[in-house]
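Lab meeting prep.
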Amino acid sequence: MFSPALALAFCIGTLFGVGLLVSGMTEPGNVQGFLDLAGAWRPQLLAVLGSAVVVAGLLFAWARTRAAPLAARSFQWPTRKDIDARLVVGSAVFGIGWALAGYCPGPAVTALGTLSVEAWVFVPAMAAGAWLAQRLR
């Protein structure tokens, strides 16, 4: 079924994926080089991450002025503000995995389209890890 919300999500997702490809975020070596501050540091992704923070900040500020999003009845803002052990451990596991594999979820799924063998191994492993985490909770 076609819906305007689905078409909007598809367009935004496609734009995001193209941005990840063009910026080099789908190349694990680029990401690992960026995270290697003590070695052969590659600062190029700093511009990508910095521009993402600026764009997100501006869009969040704009969204807070609206009564509802464009394609939904209401916003679903986070309500929790506490920092607990689960958040800290989850963030650490995510960061360690990102540094070791050179992928985080968005770029990994995008890299599937490049027929990258690493992505085709990583994404099922990531899905299995997410499934296991849900079962252990």
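Slide two material, second protein:
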Amino acid sequence: MLEGKIKPQMPFGGEPLPPAVITNIKAWIDAGANGPAPGAAATRATSQPVIPDIKPAVPTVSPVTALSFAPNGKLLAVGGYKEVRLLDASTGKPLATLSGHAGQVRTVAFSPDGKWLAAAGGLAARSGRSRFGTPELMTSCAP
């Protein structure tokens, strides 16, 4: 395949290798195609990959994974990734963000009188956490 006698020619989609390189590869194969000595590859210096720090170009909002209206219909709790957003139900205006939740918030619920809010979530079938409090208290408390 390196010589082009068998298709596809290698390297696939690239320029054919120079004859000198093909000769070296043949000699290596004829010699038994031995790899590096044990431990030799581990001692060879390798560079760490450069991972770019890419920031979103526009503001992002976590996906909606749970919803609950307060009994009076004036407040909407929106569960997402590690947060619950409280919105004015009539305008959609954000009122508060309750952060510090475990993973995806999978359920939110108001008490029947609307004074308490429960939020639960986490990694499915692995771990989870529930938080309870008044919407005002949950805004200021640590996870």
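Talking points for slide two:
The beta strands are 66-69, 75-79, 81-88, 94-110, 117-123, 127-133.
The two ends are 60 Å apart (CA to CA).
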